[in-house]
Specification:
The chain is α+β, with helices and mostly antiparallel strands. It folds into two domains: about 130 residues, no CATH class; about 110 residues, no CATH class. Helices cover about 20% and strands about 30% of the residues. It comes from mine drainage metagenome. This is MSHA biogenesis protein MshO.
Length: about 280
């Protein structure tokens, strides 16, 4: 029995030596797969959001790259009626056009009706590549207007606004399009916060990729946004960078680099998103 026990112990020790490397390799592969999945999911979420952004609403604090990126998402959109002679129809009546020469609080939608909810806003003619126009107040020349309570609820064929300030003349474009900004989102920021670069004692990243929303529309860009809601998309982030290239004004490019580090091992993903800036 003693001989059997000794021989079994020797065999068990030899098996443990040979099996340790495959087990460790499996654990490493599982950790890398998990980090890759977290990073990929976060980048795809950002890409899906940016593709619905109001034209020319994407902005970052510095042109060369940053850990913050902000934009205004859309929920719907359509075309507003225009009249060659102006003044078509009364407010709320069929044929009412959007007048850019004077304050106008309503216009008819061309096409399918849109269901608005309380707090929704519309954007007309966002043309500045620096992303400033949608965030400015109406009095400061902004191109965003809140929907009036009378125009909320059910499918609406006429858009009714609360602001009596006329849209700037530059916002009248040939496309005659408007975008609907959802009340529950407002402006959105993705930010890498915390300590980026140095790792903690366990070899983990000390930063996090966080989504902020519903904090309003603020000019200049808030870093970080205050109020509203936020949620962490990825933790243990060790490096992060957003670059917004506007060399092609109508079809700009957002490049994102994200690095997640756990146990001294890192996974780096790079993602590019085309942003349509044609209002």
């Amino acid at each position: 029995m003693i001989v059997v026990i000794v021989i079994t112990g020797i065999i068990g020790g030899m098996v443990a030596v040979f099996i340790r490397a495959p087990v460790q390799g499996y654990a490493d592969s599982a950790r890398r797969a998990e980090m890759t999945d977290i990073a990929d999911t976060a980048l795809r979420r950002i890409g899906r959001d940016l593709r619905t952004a109001v034209p020319n609403s994407v902005r970052i604090p510095v042109a060369a790259g940053s850990t913050y990126i902000e934009f205004i998402p859309t929920r719907d959109g359509g075309r507003y009626r225009v009249s060659p002679t102006g003044g078509g129809g009364g407010c709320g009546a069929a044929g009412d056009d959007l007048d850019f020469t004077a304050p106008d609080t309503c216009f008819e939608i061309v096409g399918s009706p849109i269901a608005f909810v309380a707090g929704d806003q519309i954007v007309v003619g966002s043309t500045q590549s620096d992303g400033s126009l949608p965030y400015k107040t109406a009095a400061a020349g902004g191109v965003m207007r809140p929907i009036a309570a009378a125009g909320v609820g059910g499918a609406q064929q006429v858009v009714k606004l609360t602001s009596a300030v006329a849209f700037p003349a530059s916002s009248e474009l040939d496309g005659h399009r408007f975008e609907v900004v959802p009340a529950d989102q407002q402006a959105v920021t993705y930010a890498c916060t915390g300590t980026l670069g140095p790792l903690d004692v366990n070899g983990d990243g000390q930063g996090a990729l966080t989504r902020y929303w519903a904090y309003g529309f603020i000019s200049p860009q808030p870093v970080p946004p205050l109020g509203g809601s936020n949620a962490v998309l990825a933790d243990k982030v060790s490096a992060c960078n957003f670059v917004y290239n506007t060399s092609n004004v109508r079809d700009s490019l957002v490049a994102i680099s994200l690095t997640i580090t756990r146990g001294g091992e890192s996974v780096n993903l790079y993602h590019e998103i085309h942003v349509n800036n044609l209002p």
